[in-house]
Structure formats: C-alpha cells, structure tokens
Design brief:
Elements lengths: L3 H11 L8 H18 L1 H5 L5 H5 L5 H4 L10 H20 L1 H26 L8 H14 L4 E4 L3 E4 H18 L7 H5 L1 H18 L8 H15 L20 E3 L8 E3 L12
Antiparallel strand pairs: 1-2, 3-4
Helix pairs in contact: 2-6, 6-7, 6-8, 7-8, 7-11, 8-9, 8-11
Length: 277
C-alpha cells in the first residue's frame, strides 16, 4: 500500500511555496484572543464553536473560529495553548510548512465533514472544538520525537511517548463513555494521524523486532547530540555534508523513511537513498 506521507512530501517538493508559514503562531494568538473574550463574555465565546445547525443558518464564521476555540476558560488553557504551539512549530520544522499545513487542515476538514454529515443524516447538531485535532497533532509529535522530555507540572521530566500513551487511554475511554454520535468524533478527528503516520508507526515496529544489527535509537540520538556539540552545528546533510553553520541559508529536514536519525538539506530530502541499517 502506498504511503500517503510520501505523496504529501512529493507534492510539497513540487510546490515549495505551498502552506502557511508559522501556522501555529497564528492559531495560538487567535486562541489567546478568544480566551480573553471568554473571560469577558462567555456567551459570545459560545458563538465561536462549530455548530452545523448555526452554520446552515448563516453563521459561517464558525467554520474557521472553532479552530481557535481555547481548550479551557481557566488559566491552564494558556499553558495548553503554548504547548500546542510548541508541538506544531516542531512538527513544521520536521515536516516542512506544506506538509504540516496539510496535516492540520485535513484534521479540521474531517471534523467539519463529520459534524455536517451527522446533522444532515441524523438531524443532530452539537458544538465541536479543535480539541481532537490538537490531540492528533500531539500523537504525530510523539511518533517523531518519542524520547523527548517535557517537565510535567514544570517539575517532573516525562518522555513524550508516555504522555501520548496516557492521552491514548483517555482517547479510547471517550469513545466508550460519550454518547452516539459524539463518541465517533475522536476517531474522525484523529483519522488523519493514522493516514499520515500509520506507515511510520509500522516501520518503528519493524525496526524494534530483534535483528542482528538492530538500531539503538537512544544511542544513535546521543551520538548525534555529542557530534553536534563537538562541531558546533545543529543540522548536517547526510548526503552533501553541508551544515546550518557552513550554509545558514539552507533548510534541513529529518527523513522518517531512514533507519536511525538522518538529516538532509532540502535539495536531498526527497532525493537520496534511504538508510536501512
């Protein structure tokens, strides 16, 4: 089966100007503004959520504003907004602007289509936010950077993969505890995660199977960090050897198809032989 992510990468290589640079910056700013609106007038904030019935009655702005709806009205919402901004920015740096833009808005489109179809077929309209769209973004981040650590409650260092497992548990519980058809929303909103990252998950499983020369990802990442510290650069192309120090004008990406951690400049990210061992 063809990997959808490969098609996305090919499209982005053919259209290098496609996408919205710093998309999550605009999302975070918009969410912050809406959070302030919620403090001042919670009723006004309710007009920003996705509601198919309201949209069909002329409130078409909800097609966009539900993406900016804050995750909560308390002060912890600001931390959540910053966290998703940080995740989205790292995903954009890893995938490129075009691929990240497609990933984010494909989740938004799937969510909107689900809400509209439920309303048209079942006559049920319920308010929806971008909560599960951001969850899908977090799952993708966990696939790319499973061993990255964050400070839980600003104190406890926790690896991203463990937070992703915890979120996955709540994700499954919501499917069984929410009433129909709302219980299908988490599945629909994160469907793009399976489409985009399913192939990568499968490759991770394959690489973890016992082999004579199994890649130790932790040792490999530590080796790269030591090399970076010694040579005073952050990124180095595995094909041409150029770095962000020798060529600061270049952009670099990590290839998800290669075994281990291999970085490439934009000239070679889609034009190289994948590392297998």
């Amino acid at each position: 089966m063809k990997d959808p992510m490969r098609s996305v990468e090919r499209f982005c290589a053919q259209h290098p100007n496609f996408g919205i640079p710093n998309l999550m910056r605009y999302i975070a700013i918009g969410s912050g503004i809406f959070w302030i609106v919620g403090l001042i007038n919670p009723v006004l904030l309710s007009y920003m959520a996705f509601s198919p019935a309201a949209i069909f009655h002329g409130q078409i702005w909800r097609l966009v504003t539900f993406l900016l709806y804050p995750p909560d009205t308390g002060y912890l919402a600001l931390i959540a907004v910053y966290f998703y901004y940080w995740i989205g920015t790292n995903l954009e740096n890893a995938w490129g602007t075009g691929a990240f833009t497609i990933y984010f808005f494909s989740g938004a489109i799937l969510t909107a289509l689900f809400g509209v179809l439920v309303y048209l077929l079942l006559g049920i309209s319920f308010p929806m936010t971008a909560e599960y769209i951001y969850l899908a973004m977090f799952f993708a981040f966990a696939v790319l950077f499973p061993d990255m650590e964050v400070l839980l409650f600003f104190i406890l260092p926790v690896k991203i993969k463990y937070l992703a497992i915890l979120d996955a548990v709540f994700f499954v519980l919501s499917i069984f505890t929410y009433s129909f058809p709302m219980n299908l929303l988490p599945v629909v909103a994160t469907l793009n995660f399976l489409i985009f990252c399913g192939g990568e998950l499968w490759r991770r499983v394959q690489f973890r199977r016992p082999k004579g020369n199994t890649i130790n990802f932790r040792r490999e990442s530590a080796r790269i960090r030591r090399e970076q510290q010694a040579k005073l650069y952050t990124h180095k192309c595995s094909v041409c050897g150029r770095t962000d120090v020798t060529n600061p004008e270049l952009e670099f990406r990590y290839c998800s198809k290669c075994a281990g951690y291999h970085c490439f400049c934009m000239e070679h990210i889609n034009n190289h032989i994948h590392f297998t061992e």
